[in-house]
Amino acid sequence: MSDQKLYPVIPAIAASAHIDTDRYHEMYRRSIDDPEAFWSEQAEQFLDWERRWDSVLAHDYPRGEIQWFIGGKLNVTVNCLDRHLATRGDQIAIIWEGDDPSHHSTLTYRELHRQVCKFANVMKSQGVGKGDRVCIYLPMIAEAAVVILACARIGAIHSIVFGGFSADALRDRILDADCRFLICADESYRGGKIVHSKLNVDKAAKQCPNLRTVVVIKHTGHDIPWSNGRDVCYHEAMQSADETCEPELMDAEDPLFILYTSGSTGLPKGVLHTTGGYLLYAAMTHKYVFDYREGDVYWCTADIGWITGHSYVLYGPLCNGATTLMFEGVPTYPEPDRFWQVIDKHRGNIFYTAPTAIRALMAQGDAYVQRTGRDSLRVLGSVGEPINPEAWEWYYRVVGDQRCPVVDTWWQTETGGILITPLPGATALKPGSATLPFFGIQPAILDPEGHPLDGEAEGILVLTFPWPGQARSVYGDHQRFVDTYFSKFPGYYFAGDGARRDADGYYWITGRIDDVLNVSGHRLGTAEIESALVLHDQVAEAAVVGFPHPIKGQGIYAYVTLNVGVEGNETLKAELKNLVREEVSAIALPDAIQWSPGLPKTRSGKIMRRILRKIAANEFSDLGDTSTLADPAVVEQLVANRQHPS
Ligand code: PRX
Questions:
Q1: Domains in the chain, start-ordered, CATH in brackets?
Q2: Mutation probe of ligand 1 site: the residue of 353, 383, 514, 522 with most atoms within 8 A of C-beta
Q3: 576 and 592 in contact (C-beta within 8 Å)?
Q4: Which residues of this UniProt protein bind Mg(2+) (predicted)?
């Protein structure tokens, strides 16, 4: 079994790391024995508070109630910007690297602070205030950091929508949070192609009657349609804006942002994160998980539209006064050595990316890596999906030249920050294992009936105790928060993942146990894709499942039942793909569509996805018990017509 392979801590890393093995165990113990004292100390050490908290923690898991640092007051941007000005005002806060390798720029902490204050004043002059929801639909440009932090400056709640989402997905998110103010770019670049951001906004806005103001940042500078009275030019507004903006005093539990994420049912949920606990957890994990040190150039390749971009491109690094790199492009443009070229160009020390990118680059061969130096690298990170040992080994051996520990970090949108992870100077590594819990994190493995399993075990991963970065609610629907995370196994936070704990206490995440897909590290609900497919007037029913995919981790396989008398053909397939692209995103396009006159259902009408998953995975030998099916013959028909995914 792959648990046998163990990479000891690299002595040169341990010698200078913040946390070595003994210190990890000592701090971990303390964080569990006396969480309130532990987190109090961390909150003092990592953050500047305007007012100290009255109590550290109050929680009631069955009601989904979690509060940290109650009564504490602070502002996120004071912590991410103002307090750095005296000591590192002229240090680079953000390195921006464009899609085109000849485009790059930098912002110092002083300049970033100045621009954030200015845009905060722009928003105020447009009537945006504390508690208002602001939608941000932007590519990876430096201005994204400016507008995100400007929201935090004035206490507005940002809701960032990934720039790759369609107009319809954008519309749903604007409506759900009732955003009246939106910031977008004219267009953006991705792998040399143009993305028409503003056109998507115009389309979404038609169905968002409350959307009053759209601020447009010029990025490509091409001509775009303009709606007088609604659209505001970012650059003109910034020119006349005042440079001073007092930070809004926020309660530790005031909302900081909403971020939509997919679940097993219904539309994506607006996961709500608050101010004090979230920032502390992002900053502390950033420092210890990546062993961040003063002067490091730190690069996380995630888009700001995902939680990884929130916590580890912006909030964590900036709170720690780091130089963080924002990358607009893709790993393979102009060539598959782009990541390594960027590392050499900016002398990157810490690099954090997703297994899907590692697998895609591995498939291109070692030469693209080996023609670059990468000698500045010290720590490598992985996030978003299980990393297969083969990809881990390649990352460690070829990219990191066996000098750099690989931290495989397990966490979720809802957890705000990393929960299970190695620490570079403390944890011996096993390829494919996220290893051990971070400070304060108490994982447990349950059997299907909810009984905790001791020692070596495999089952359902839960967390038994709160941590400061944990989500507080689903925006506008607290009951959904309770139902999704706290009802299935009362007294625990239910993560939706399966896991195995080995004899050394190491955790191995085995993947989602619900109908959530993880395609190239992007989280998608099967229900969202199915709803898009059934919008077609010739489709009667659709069922979507995931199957193992060599690069994407999971691919998407759709079984589609057409209306009686309709013949399936390639044109129809193209129309269905288009629907998915329009309703959800290009990242949700099915890799295979199979016309299925019938779907395997129980007598009570429930689709047996287990069987559909097996067929999609080409595993026909063990289809399990099919005797409870209403019509067992359906299965043979599906097997006979299996499609080869593209
Ligand atoms: O299934 C787990 C997988 O990604 C899910 C969370 O997705 P999302 O909220 O989009 O956040 C992704 C970035 C934190 C988890 O439920 N996942 C994430 N990281 C890992 C992982 N699975 C295995 N190993 C990981 N390191």
A1: 11-124+138-428+448-477+493-500 (3.40.50.12780), 513-641 (3.30.300.30)
A2: 383
A3: no
A4: 534, 536, 539
Query: Measured from the CA of 408, which atom of ligand 1 is nearest?
Result: 26
Residue 510 Cβ contacting ligand 1 at under 6 Å: no
Total number of residues shown for the chain: 646
Q: Is 508 helix (H, G, I), strand (E, B) or coil?
A: strand
pLDDT in tens, 501-545: 999 999 999 999 988 999 999 999 999 999 999 999 999 999 999
Q: How far, rounded to the nearest angstrom, does the alpha carbon of residue 25 sit from its chain's CA centroid?
A: 28
User: What is the percent of the chain where pLDDT is above 90?
Assistant: 93
The C-alpha atoms of residue 437 and residue 248 are separated, in whole angstroms, by 35
> Which residues neighbour 404 within 8 Å (Cβ) at sequence distance 6 or greater?
10, 13, 377, 378, 379, 380, 396
Contact 557, 645 (CB under 8 A): yes
Q: Per the structure block, which two tokens stand in for 359?
A: 């697998």
Question: Tens digit of pLDDT for each residue in 349-405?
Answer: 999 999 999 999 999 999 999 999 999 999 999 999 999 999 999 999 999 999 999
Minimum CA distance residue for ligand 1 atom 26 = 410
Assigned token pair, 11: 């002595």
Residue list, annotated binding site for ATP: 384-386, 408-413, 497, 512, 523
Residue type present at position 320: N
Banded model confidence at residue 624, pLDDT cuts 50, 70, 90: confident
DSSP 246: P
Pairing type for strands 181-185 and 213-217 reads parallel
pTM, two decimal places? 0.95
pLDDT at 45 over 90: yes
* DSSP 8-state assignment for residue 399: I
Cβ(292)–Cβ(298) under 8 Å?
yes
Helix (H, G, I), strand (E, B) or coil at 289: helix
Look up residue 484 and give its two tokens. Answer: 């999704």
Choice from 485, 523, 554 to test ligand 1 binding pocket (greatest atom count within 8 A of CB): 523
The secondary structure of 436-465 as a DSSP string is SBPTT--EEEE-TTS-EE-SSEEEEEEESS
Tell me, using a 6 A CB cutoff, whether residue 303 lines ligand 1.
no
Numbers of helices and strands, H then E, in the chain: 22, 31
462 CA to centre of ligand 1 in angstroms = 14
Q: Any idea which residue has 């709500």 for tokens?
A: 272
Beta bridge partners of 443: 463
pLDDT at 604 over 90: no
- The set of residues, in sequence order, having a beta carbon less than 8 Å from that of 504 and lying 6+ positions away, is 3
**What Å distances lie between residue 230 and 154, 197, 213, 444, 611, CA to CA?**
22, 16, 5, 51, 51
Contact by Cβ (8 Å): 284, 537: no
Residue 173's contacts (CB-CB under 8 Å, 6 or more residues apart) are 135, 159, 161, 165, 179, 260, 268, 270
Judged by DSSP in three states, 59 sits in: strand
Binding residues for CoA: 190-193, 308, 520, 581
What is the best residue among 412, 512, 514 to mutate for testing ligand 1's pocket, by most ligand atoms within 8 Å of CB?
Answer: 412
Residue 450, CA atoms < 13 Å, CB-side half-sphere: 10
SS3 state at 394: helix
Atom of ligand 1 nearest to the CA of 509: 23
- Decide if 602 contacts 628 (C-beta within 8 A): yes
